[in-house]
Amino acid sequence: MNLLETLQQFPAFANVPDEQLQWVIDRADEESYPEETVLYKPNEPINHLILLLEGRVRIDGGVNGAADEILTYEPHSLLGLLPFSRMKSIPNRLISVTPIKVLKLHRDKLPELIHACYELTESMVHQMTTRVRDYTKLTQQNEKMASLGRLSAGLAHELNNPVAAVVRSADTLKVHMRATPEAFKAIMHLNLTDEQVDSVNTVFFKKVDQQRAVDARPLTLLERTSLEDEVTDWLDDNGVDDSMDLASPLVDYGFTVDDLDWILEKIGDENLVGVINWLVNNLVTEKLVSDISEASKRISTLTGSIKNYTHMDRGTGKQQIPLAEGLRSTLILLDHKVKSKHIQLNLTIADDLPPVCGWPGELNQVWTNLIDNAIDALPDGGKLDIVSQPDRRPDGSEFVVTKVIDNGSGIPEDIKDKIFEPFFTTKEIGKGTGLGLDIVQGIIKHHNGSIKLQSEPGHTEFSVCLPTE
Asked: What's the predicted TM-score (pTM) here?
């Protein structure tokens, strides 16, 4: 089969006259390459229209080879530069999967092709728009999956601690409850009046309630050590065995020597050992149950954040959105990254912040990308401020302005105008696709909003303005 017959097999050239195909053949170079030949490296200039005559070609990330595959081209495909395309390079690698044969037309010939071959140009422009649409959709999907992967990893990390705490406390509680029968025997041998029992119950529940209080101040290490020594000495002086083991739970709930003196006065020496052991037994049970409760609440908070973040229990239409909810949910899911870099995080949300009208799932992508990028840009111990406040314009229209501010090294002046371009990234290969800010800008435009950037060393600020109507 000659070259003309081969080009006639291209689906894109179904309506192209033979003389126009021959025009390309006369001006193009036929070349062959063995398998696994790198035709273009990432960001290498592309100067040819490539017609794939035989074999298969793939586009990959250039890091893990076939594992990074983005697209595969079969025989009779158009690659590289196309008429009217502004392409100068691609951020990925173009490599032959099998031995290939191609026809290459240099970019210098494209202006002449546009004037001489109308049908051919039309078919190639159609291919260009299809290629851009398919490639952008695929890469955006990969970016969304990568974001989902990062959030899933963070969620698993955050869930691991409370889940481990529940398991650990439940196992300890099971062991602890086996000692209850012995404690019950000791209690049954005590000779206590109803008034004495009530006094012990009173001090027990008073200490438990104080520990549960929101404003309860935790003891410093020095204060705790000093109080444990005092309680241990008191127990020893009053003939209570295992004083060191008993002192710690008592101190956990704020028992002091004065409290123990009060109990002793109420119950008498003969009942002291049994009552102290009963108190400690119940305090340990209370502590384990409290730990399980706190860990369970943390799990509930995390799952609630995922529910709020994805809005999986709501419709997909446009609705009134409380931005504070989305910001907090996003921060909970990214909390592991904040902690891992010891970042000082400040979230300031105005009390009178009005809701905005939009698609909650899309706006959460905005906060995820902006906050995740800010965290990546910060050094260990950096500072991240997130501020959301209402803004009323002179014409009476209302907006909500949300700012994501970091004190990192800033964005260089020469790339500020490029950061919202598709596929532009400052991250190393394999760490970013360059679609984050492009997606952000597209979503904000979809909401009739705007995004602005101010950056200098020590202060980078992304300001998102969204209408309330």
From this structure: 0.49
